[in-house]
């Protein structure tokens, strides 16, 4: 991608309402743009990251046998009345009416819809277990919208739903999801801890949140630095607020950002929506369910919150919008020719590259913007590098650059096989 053609415009100042680093950086670098309070557009750079995160989620959920589908945003009121959540959902449902005065929810979640969808397709124990997921827009009628992408009215969620014949089978899959979530967050450059938590409006069962420790997080957890046990402060019993129940070490209280949540639903939705199956003995039983969610935008903001420095974003390699930021800093023919050739060679090797071919920017301006945008590798082509028949290469997270021949360069730039 030629930077001269990229649809973006960086800014030197963050918006006044931006209080945390990730919000400021994502807006300054023009990854996102606010349309209204809690509603954001993702520009090409931001949407590249969004897609990379979504693809990592797909990789890991597919690997545990989940199947992707896509469900409607508009959900009829009748379904929500059956589960009793039409009036009780917190935050309240955003309701719209069609021309026939029929009420619909703008889907904040999809338990009702997926359960109704499963009814004609799950009838026997032979149809179980099954796991279905989507990456789709959700709407939450939040009272307080803060932290840029950390709390919004409209966002993409990867929501997974699983169906089982008993609690033991649910538990087996539940643990596989926990492992998949560990992999997802690790690949996104985050160290997320599993925290015991409340099921809120979704279930009375004990759930797990995946929390990333951060001073800007709205959640409070008790955390054991020795064995990594954690619990949301809301559910932690008074007798375990000092000593870890798992290893006995001293607990510390931390602020954190919730990046994922896993729920054991039991029959909370299958019973009122009449989702049942016939077991091997010919008995009719309610299907046991689980659900699991990751907010893609919130995860993106958390990645930036953790992976940054004073100059800008430091994207982890798997989620960066481009792997390489190629910068031409002089405009002589031989420099242009060398930069153009490398740009072509990188593309030929399927190495994603943003090529700064702009001739109206100073070297300082180009370097400052490269740091702000945060690609993992910066490659500079100049009179000096052309003379030496090498390229100046610097990792975004490193302080020093080194000169490297194209052959060696290609070896380090090719993404590692998953």
CATH superfamily of the largest domain: Bira Bifunctional Protein, Domain 2
Question: How many individual helices?
Answer: 10
Specify the CATH class of the largest domain: Alpha Beta
Number of strands: 23
In terms of DSSP E residues, the strand content is: 25-35%
**N-end to C-end Cα span:** 25 Å
Structural class: alpha+beta
Approximate helicity band: 25-40%
Q: Indicate the CATH topology of the largest domain.
A: BirA Bifunctional Protein, domain 2
Low-confidence stretches: none
Tell me the overall shape: elongated
Radius of gyration: 24 Å
Average predicted confidence as pLDDT: 95
Number of domains: 2
CATH architecture tag of the largest domain: 2-Layer Sandwich
Topology:
Blueprint (H helix, E strand, L loop, with lengths): L20 H8 L3 E5 L2 E4 L1 H20 L3 E2 L5 E3 H7 L11 E3 L5 E4 L4 H8 L11 E10 L14 E11 L2 H21 L5 E5 L9 E7 L5 E5 L6 E3 L19 E15 L9 E3 L5 E3 L1 E8 H11 L1 E2 L2 E2 L10 E5 L4 H16 L4 E4 L6 H11 L3 E5 L1 H6 L2 E5 L6 E3 L1 H8 L5
Parallel strand pairs: 3-7, 19-20, 19-21
Antiparallel strand pairs: 1-2, 4-6, 5-6, 7-8, 8-16, 9-10, 10-13, 11-12, 11-13, 13-16, 14-15, 17-18, 21-22, 22-23
Helix pairs in contact: 1-6, 2-5, 2-6
């Amino acid at each position: 991608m030629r930077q001269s053609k990229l649809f973006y415009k960086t800014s030197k100042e963050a918006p006044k309402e931006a209080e945390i680093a990730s919000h400021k950086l994502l807006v300054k670098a023009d990854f996102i743009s606010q349309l209204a309070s809690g509603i954001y557009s993702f520009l090409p750079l931001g949407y590249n990251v969004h897609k990379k995160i979504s693809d990592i989620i797909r990789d890991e959920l597919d690997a545990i046998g989940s199947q992707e589908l896509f469900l409607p945003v508009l959900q009829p009121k009748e379904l929500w009345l059956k589960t009793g959540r039409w009036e009780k959902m917190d935050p309240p449902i955003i309701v719209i009416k069609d021309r026939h005065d029929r009420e619909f929810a703008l889907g904040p979640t999809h338990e009702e819809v997926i359960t109704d969808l499963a009814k004609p397709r799950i009838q026997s124990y032979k149809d179980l277990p099954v796991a279905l997921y989507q990456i789709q827009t959700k709407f939450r009628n939040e009272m307080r919208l803060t932290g840029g992408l950390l709390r919004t009215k409209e966002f993409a969620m990867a929501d997974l739903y699983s169906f089982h014949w008993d609690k033991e089978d649910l538990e087996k899959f539940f643990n596989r999801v926990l492992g998949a979530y560990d992999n997802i967050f690790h690949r996104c450059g985050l160290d997320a801890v599993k925290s015991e938590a409340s099921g809120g409006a979704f279930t009375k069962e004990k759930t797990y949140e995946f929390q990333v420790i951060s001073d800007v997080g709205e959640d409070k957890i008790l955390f054991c630095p020795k064995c990594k046990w954690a619990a949301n402060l809301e559910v932690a019993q008074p007798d375990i607020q000092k000593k870890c129940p798992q290893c006995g070490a001293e607990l510390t209280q931390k602020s954190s950002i919730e990046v994922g949540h896993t729920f054991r639903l039991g029959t909370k939705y299958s019973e009122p929506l009449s989702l049942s199956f016939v077991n091997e003995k010919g008995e009719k039983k309610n299907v046991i369910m689980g659900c699991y969610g990751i907010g893609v935008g919130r995860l993106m903001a958390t990645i930036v919150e953790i992976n940054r420095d004073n100059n800008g974003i430091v994207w982890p390699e798997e989620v960066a919008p481009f792997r390489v930021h190629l910068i031409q800093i002089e405009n002589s023919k031989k420099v242009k020719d060398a930069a153009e050739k490398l740009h072509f060679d990188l593309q030929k090797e399927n190495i994603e590259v943003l090529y700064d071919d702009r001739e109206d920017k100073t070297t300082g301006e180009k370097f400052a913007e490269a740091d702000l945008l945060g690609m993992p590798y910066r490659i500079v082509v100049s009179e000096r590098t052309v003379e030496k028949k090498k390229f100046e290469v610097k990792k975004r997270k490193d302080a020093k650059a080194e000169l490297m021949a194209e052959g060696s360069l290609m070896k380090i730039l090719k993404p590692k096989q998953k």
